[in-house]
Amino acid sequence: MTHLTHRRAGTMTANASRASISFACLISALAAVIFSASGAQAQSAQATTDWPYWGGTRLFQRYSPADQIDADNVQDVEIVWRRPAADSSVTDADPQLRISGNFRATPIYVDGVLYTSNGVGLVEAIDPATGVTRWVQSFEADSLQATRAASSRGIEYWSDGSGDRIFTVRLGNLYALNPATGEAITDFGDNGAVNLVPEGAETFSLVSSSPIVVNGVVIISGTVDGAGDGGAQWRGVHSEDVRGFDAVSGELLWTFHAVPREGEFGAESWGNDSWNGAGDLGSWCCLSADEELGHVYVPFTAPTAAYFGGHRPGDNLYSNSLVAIDAATGERVWHFQMVRHDVWEYDNVGPPVLGDIVVDGRPIKAVMQANKTGWVYVFDRVTGEPVWPIEDLPVPQSDVPGEVLSPTQPFPTKPAPIATQGITEADIVDFPEVAQVARATVANFVTGPIFTPPSIVSDEPGGNQGTLTLPGSWGSANWNTGAFDPETGYYYGFANDIPRVYRLVETDDPDADMPYWSPNREAPYLDGIPLTRPPWGRIIAIDMNTGEHVWQIANGDSLSEHPDLDELDLPTLGIASRPAALVTRTLLFIGVGSNNHGGTQPNMWGTAFRAYDKFTGEEVWRTDLPSGT
């Protein structure tokens, strides 16, 4: 094993110190696991240790065949370097800059160089042995404050055999950079950039997903701001369309409308012509692709104003759908809508994971899509046919004036859910010290099975305080979940089990165009203890050849020193977070996500980074980092 000693590259500025911790954890973890495996004893083929895309490859399996680190020597892994959230050239340009620690990009590793999006969304090239900066994408100093808390979620490396380039999205532009120097490739677009802000749009998202290149077409999504999750406005905002550009010239080749326009397939699913303005629908997570088929797989989010849909009667395609798109033409190949007329924000925000499985002796090229409902939906990625039956079952209906829900929703028969669905009395936390208070608190809310709709808050004493539900709007699965082991056919899912409240109140804004909106959706805590039973975060291994769960464990320690619980003999309770994983030949590496969950109860969340036996779920190693991964 390559010996990793502690070497520190440079010093942190005061302004960047908070964010540098998170960045160090992410980078050093990846470097320790992947870079050390590329040393003298690693496989000879370069492709075995490169990590050229956010999810490892465009299949988004988050899998590396590197085998140098295993259960016998993982104890020797240690941090080799740390670095600030952004290079000193960035912080020196604006000494008042405070960079968020909210990193979401996995660095890519190609030909011995790490590339990543830094704390303000600029691409940096890093020497993986030392942590020293090789280059930083050029920038204007006055652009730094705009993106100080909104780094991009990933970058893309592409080569056509005659020239390499890195694609990244920042401040409403798609950039093509030279990987060797970081300089703009000037014959792409307008001097190296393509403006992504649609005509008529006044705003654009400061957070962007990674582009993906499929057979010479660079495809982007999720770049325009909408109305927000629970707001009271919906007219005049823009959907976040998927677009394909020529990877050499930057020419726009096609646009796939997230909300179908008049005359297009699916427009009839938006009653009252609500397609003409129902924006805030797009794909802000991760795209995956099968380059042999020429298909890109796009997971779409919930529609505008996610908790009230009276203004948008119908099923609302392509919200909450997985869509296979022909990367050459932008034409829909197939789609499946997981949630019709969503009022729960049950987005498809996780990556579509592509893998080959064998079910009842039949080889299947599969795509696995987790979302916030707690299900993992599995399809033949060629045809869109479900691998196991998906049943249409009746669901609770709304009593909110003007709201008309779908009478049924799709229920997969396999795999079983990876998270708790709905809330019954048996799901309420039952620690003796808080059980009575928990039951009394839950009694103030509407509860029921999955798809119990949002409810109107009452001003009367003892009146309804909204709908308490699992999964909540953070999931179950979120953008982090999903990894696939092509050797075993195991899919690894990561789930949150923290309830949320769907409460509707009448709008008092005279400029609003909806009668109801949803304010704070956070559920009450009992002195830091959630209302529902643990585990509050878990890892689940599913054999996708059978659709059966293989093992399940709680992910992370929480409340272990809570004064009300310190005398109880409790198992690992799990932490609600959004960790991403790395699967190797024998191990599953995973952290516990960010330090806090939507700003709540920050002392609950841990900072451990662990390795598990991927076959059994047994923990074989852990280290505690200064911040969440």
Amount of beta strand: 25-35%
Instruction: Compute the separation of the termini in Å.
Output: 24 Å
The secondary structure category is mainly beta
Percent helix among the residues? under 10%
Task: Report the average pLDDT across residues.
Answer: 86
Rg for CA atoms: 24 Å
Q: Which spans of ≥5 residues are poorly predicted at pLDDT below 50?
A: 1-47, 595-603
| Order of strands, widest sheet | 1-2-3-4
Biggest sheet character: 4 strands, antiparallel
List the total number of helices: 3
What oligomerization state is this entry in? single chain
For the secondary structure, the number of strands is 33
Q: How would you sum up the global shape?
A: globular
Report on the structure:
This protein is mainly beta and 629 residues long. It has helices at residues 17-35, 88-93, 435-442, and strands at 108-110, 113-117, 123-126, 133-136, 156-159, 164-170, 173-177, 193-195, 212-214, 217-220, 242-246, 252-256, 288-290, 295-299, 321-326, 332-337, 353-359, 362-370, 376-380, 390-394, 408-412, 455-456, 467-469, 483-485, 490-496, 500-506, 516-517, 537-543, 548-554, 581-583, 587-590, 608-613, 619-624. The protein is globular.
